Amino acid sequence: MLIDIHTHIQQHDLSEVPGMLQRAEDVGVSTIIAAGTTIEDSRKAIRLAETYANIYAGVGIHPSDLEAPISSEDIAMLDSMASHGRVTVMSEIGIDHMPNSPDHKSQKEAFAAQIEIAKRHDLPVVFHVREHLDDLSRFEARASALAILADQDAGQLGGAAHYFQGDYDYARKVLDLGLKISFAKPLLRSKELQDVARRLPLDSIVLETDAYPQPFKKNRARWTEPKDVRLVAECLAQIRGIRLEMLHNRSV
């Protein structure tokens, strides 16, 4: 069976969830992690995990959703949620340098604070990094994230670089910290990513869909769902020249 280590299915209408779970089960996806992006969204992820046995929750504040510097109240609420028995990962947290993202200092502080929460509860860290398109030669978001992960010794917890779209050198830096690489549907179309996936140790790779509501796709059947992690797994198996069964039960 396959595991989708990163989704946002709690953001869908609750009436859609049973159908998504059935479609996932039909193609061999047994476990799904719903990652929170705000405190309220994290609560929704936990409620979903309490309702369905094959869903687990991640908690965290996404860097793009920081409305102010992370507060002691925010930390206390996340700390409490992180102790919940259905929470298995600290996510979605990280660094984002897109033009309208919050100031970089606040992002760094929030990322470090949330890794500290993960350490208190022994939770893996699944992290987000996104560069400003004008900064692609400098990779400042990437450098900030790697420095904080190293300083916090996050590798002791385990975790992964979410929705990975970097090069092999970046992937090796993530692995050198003791973390994994999480591939999603971009692997299906990117020759560069396929080359990275071919070169990495197989046990350093996990899979996800990042599934969230996609109303911009008018055809509902084209929305990405947890079932699509099988497509990513099939692509990886083909790249590596192995049986699909060798990719089952891969998590952070």
Question: Any overview of this molecule?
Answer:
- It is built from eight helices and eight strands; from the N terminus they run βαβαβαβαβαβαβαβα.
- The two termini are about 15 Å apart.
- It has helices at about 15-25, 40-50, 70-80, 105-120, 140-150, 170-175, 190-200, 230-240, and strands spanning about 1-5, 30-35, 55-60, 85-95, 125-130, 160, 180-185, 205.
- It is globular.
- Helix 7 links the parallel strand 7 (about 180-185) and strand 8.
- Helix content is about 35%, strand content about 15%.
- Strands 1-2-3-4-5-6-7-8 form an eight-stranded parallel β-sheet.
- The protein is α/β, with parallel strands linked by helices and about 250 residues long.
Order of helices and strands: EHEHEHEHEHEHEHEH
Biggest sheet architecture: 8 strands, parallel
β-sheet strand percentage: 15-25%
User: Averaging pLDDT over every residue, what do you get?
Assistant: 96
Concise description?
The protein has helices spanning 17-26, 39-51, 72-82, 104-121, 140-151, 168-176, 191-199, 229-240; strands at residues 2-7, 29-35, 55-59, 87-96, 125-130, 159-161, 180-183, 205-207. By secondary structure, it is an alpha/beta fold.
Keywords:
8 helices, alpha/beta, eight-stranded parallel β-sheet, 252 residues
Structural topology:
Blueprint: E1 2-7, H1 17-26, E2 29-35, H2 39-51, E3 55-59, H3 72-82, E4 87-96, H4 104-121, E5 125-130, H5 140-151, E6 159-161, H6 168-176, E7 180-183, H7 191-199, E8 205-207, H8 229-240
Parallel strand pairs: 1-2, 2-3, 3-4, 4-5, 5-6, 6-7, 7-8
Helix pairs in contact: 2-3, 3-4, 4-5
